[in-house]
Amino acid sequence: MPEVIRAKEMGFCFGVKGAVELAEELAETRRDKKIYMLGMLVHNEHVIDKLKGKGVEILEEADLLEGRDNLKEGDIVVVRAHGTIKPVYDKLLEKKAEIHDAACIFVTTIRKTLQEKEKEGYEILFLGDINHPEVRGIISFGKTVRVIEGIEELKATKIEAEKKYALLTQTTLNKNKFLEVKKYIESNYHNIDIFDKICGATYVRQKAVEELAKEVDLVLVVGGKKSSNTKKLYEISKRINLNTYLVQDENSLDRSWFEKVKRVGITAGASTPEEVIVKIENIIRGTI
Ligand code: F3S
């Protein structure tokens, strides 16, 4: 049986943990109320299914905005760790829902910085993935935020010498990508202030998988299909160790992967529950 080695940091981050615990507690203590989670509370299908089993329903943002929802006054709505867009918060207030905002402190801090810098007259550049809910949520609190994905887009962006710019980052950005952009900015511009907002939980998980990938014969990255930080862990590991696989749960394992390997490394995205990781470890060790 191969030896299984865990990354030094992996799995649930405190923002996700807080959001899931909040929803579970509400499901337990407020049974008299209808409880919704706004979209996928966290990007992990297992966590979502478990919450659904406890009676927490999904309220889709688009349905809410377009009037296709059944939300009633006083219904409970839990906002996910990555927050949501301002029009959704406004709609929830308008419909007098009982809002429980589980938006992580790192996300709300970026929102605050963005608004402060705009007030101070900065133009905002946002380094991240425009399709990620966190990014869409944060930038909806600003006026004219330009989202860039990397150096190439930055090069294509008109930077005016007489203006001042603030560059903010998505919490789950790949640190190496950020450092590349930072280096480019520092050697080409004097009027872009950089605010590194990659959250500690993301960074330590990325560092840990970097170390792990060098030490083992094969790396398993466990996480949801829609989880951005899981995908980044996969990319980092794959660059170092070609034998890297992204799996959602034990059902996506191919047992032949482990036939000739001695050391299997395992890491997991910030929204992957411990029970999924343990199941996978037990399969590799041949205990189930
Ligand atoms: Fe918060 Fe970082 Fe997790 S931003 S939700 S602690 S990945």
TrEMBL record:
<comment type="function">
    <text>Catalyzes the conversion of 1-hydroxy-2-methyl-2-(E)-butenyl 4-diphosphate (HMBPP) into a mixture of isopentenyl diphosphate (IPP) and dimethylallyl diphosphate (DMAPP). Acts in the terminal step of the DOXP/MEP pathway for isoprenoid precursor biosynthesis.</text>
</comment>
<feature type="binding site">
    <location>
        <position position="229"/>
    </location>
    <ligand>
        <name>dimethylallyl diphosphate</name>
    </ligand>
</feature>
<feature type="binding site">
    <location>
        <position position="271"/>
    </location>
    <ligand>
        <name>isopentenyl diphosphate</name>
    </ligand>
</feature>
<feature type="binding site">
    <location>
        <position position="171"/>
    </location>
    <ligand>
        <name>(2E)-4-hydroxy-3-methylbut-2-enyl diphosphate</name>
    </ligand>
</feature>
<feature type="binding site">
    <location>
        <position position="227"/>
    </location>
    <ligand>
        <name>isopentenyl diphosphate</name>
    </ligand>
</feature>
<dbReference type="GO" id="GO:0051539">
    <property type="term" value="F:4 iron, 4 sulfur cluster binding"/>
</dbReference>
<dbReference type="GO" id="GO:0050992">
    <property type="term" value="P:dimethylallyl diphosphate biosynthetic process"/>
</dbReference>
<comment type="similarity">
    <text>Belongs to the IspH family.</text>
</comment>
<dbReference type="InterPro" id="IPR003451">
    <property type="entry name" value="LytB/IspH"/>
</dbReference>
<keyword id="KW-0411">Iron-sulfur</keyword>
<feature type="binding site">
    <location>
        <position position="227"/>
    </location>
    <ligand>
        <name>dimethylallyl diphosphate</name>
    </ligand>
</feature>
<keyword id="KW-0004">4Fe-4S</keyword>
<dbReference type="GO" id="GO:0051745">
    <property type="term" value="F:4-hydroxy-3-methylbut-2-enyl diphosphate reductase activity"/>
</dbReference>
<dbReference type="GO" id="GO:0019288">
    <property type="term" value="P:isopentenyl diphosphate biosynthetic process, methylerythritol 4-phosphate pathway"/>
</dbReference>
<feature type="binding site">
    <location>
        <position position="132"/>
    </location>
    <ligand>
        <name>(2E)-4-hydroxy-3-methylbut-2-enyl diphosphate</name>
    </ligand>
</feature>
<feature type="binding site">
    <location>
        <position position="82"/>
    </location>
    <ligand>
        <name>dimethylallyl diphosphate</name>
    </ligand>
</feature>
<dbReference type="GO" id="GO:0016114">
    <property type="term" value="P:terpenoid biosynthetic process"/>
</dbReference>
<feature type="binding site">
    <location>
        <position position="228"/>
    </location>
    <ligand>
        <name>dimethylallyl diphosphate</name>
    </ligand>
</feature>
<feature type="binding site">
    <location>
        <position position="271"/>
    </location>
    <ligand>
        <name>(2E)-4-hydroxy-3-methylbut-2-enyl diphosphate</name>
    </ligand>
</feature>
<feature type="binding site">
    <location>
        <position position="229"/>
    </location>
    <ligand>
        <name>(2E)-4-hydroxy-3-methylbut-2-enyl diphosphate</name>
    </ligand>
</feature>
<feature type="binding site">
    <location>
        <position position="271"/>
    </location>
    <ligand>
        <name>dimethylallyl diphosphate</name>
    </ligand>
</feature>
<feature type="binding site">
    <location>
        <position position="228"/>
    </location>
    <ligand>
        <name>(2E)-4-hydroxy-3-methylbut-2-enyl diphosphate</name>
    </ligand>
</feature>
<comment type="pathway">
    <text>Isoprenoid biosynthesis; isopentenyl diphosphate biosynthesis via DXP pathway; isopentenyl diphosphate from 1-deoxy-D-xylulose 5-phosphate: step 6/6.</text>
</comment>
<feature type="binding site">
    <location>
        <position position="228"/>
    </location>
    <ligand>
        <name>isopentenyl diphosphate</name>
    </ligand>
</feature>
<dbReference type="GO" id="GO:0046872">
    <property type="term" value="F:metal ion binding"/>
</dbReference>
<feature type="binding site">
    <location>
        <position position="132"/>
    </location>
    <ligand>
        <name>isopentenyl diphosphate</name>
    </ligand>
</feature>
<dbReference type="Pfam" id="PF02401">
    <property type="entry name" value="LYTB"/>
</dbReference>
<feature type="active site" description="Proton donor">
    <location>
        <position position="134"/>
    </location>
</feature>
<protein>
    <recommendedName>
        <fullName>4-hydroxy-3-methylbut-2-enyl diphosphate reductase</fullName>
        <ecNumber>1.17.7.4</ecNumber>
    </recommendedName>
</protein>
<feature type="binding site">
    <location>
        <position position="229"/>
    </location>
    <ligand>
        <name>isopentenyl diphosphate</name>
    </ligand>
</feature>
<comment type="pathway">
    <text>Isoprenoid biosynthesis; dimethylallyl diphosphate biosynthesis; dimethylallyl diphosphate from (2E)-4-hydroxy-3-methylbutenyl diphosphate: step 1/1.</text>
</comment>
<feature type="binding site">
    <location>
        <position position="82"/>
    </location>
    <ligand>
        <name>isopentenyl diphosphate</name>
    </ligand>
</feature>
<feature type="binding site">
    <location>
        <position position="199"/>
    </location>
    <ligand>
        <name>[4Fe-4S] cluster</name>
    </ligand>
</feature>
<feature type="binding site">
    <location>
        <position position="82"/>
    </location>
    <ligand>
        <name>(2E)-4-hydroxy-3-methylbut-2-enyl diphosphate</name>
    </ligand>
</feature>
<feature type="binding site">
    <location>
        <position position="43"/>
    </location>
    <ligand>
        <name>dimethylallyl diphosphate</name>
    </ligand>
</feature>
<feature type="binding site">
    <location>
        <position position="104"/>
    </location>
    <ligand>
        <name>[4Fe-4S] cluster</name>
    </ligand>
</feature>
<feature type="binding site">
    <location>
        <position position="132"/>
    </location>
    <ligand>
        <name>dimethylallyl diphosphate</name>
    </ligand>
</feature>
<feature type="binding site">
    <location>
        <position position="13"/>
    </location>
    <ligand>
        <name>[4Fe-4S] cluster</name>
    </ligand>
</feature>
<keyword id="KW-0414">Isoprene biosynthesis</keyword>
<feature type="binding site">
    <location>
        <position position="227"/>
    </location>
    <ligand>
        <name>(2E)-4-hydroxy-3-methylbut-2-enyl diphosphate</name>
    </ligand>
</feature>
<keyword id="KW-0560">Oxidoreductase</keyword>
<feature type="binding site">
    <location>
        <position position="43"/>
    </location>
    <ligand>
        <name>isopentenyl diphosphate</name>
    </ligand>
</feature>
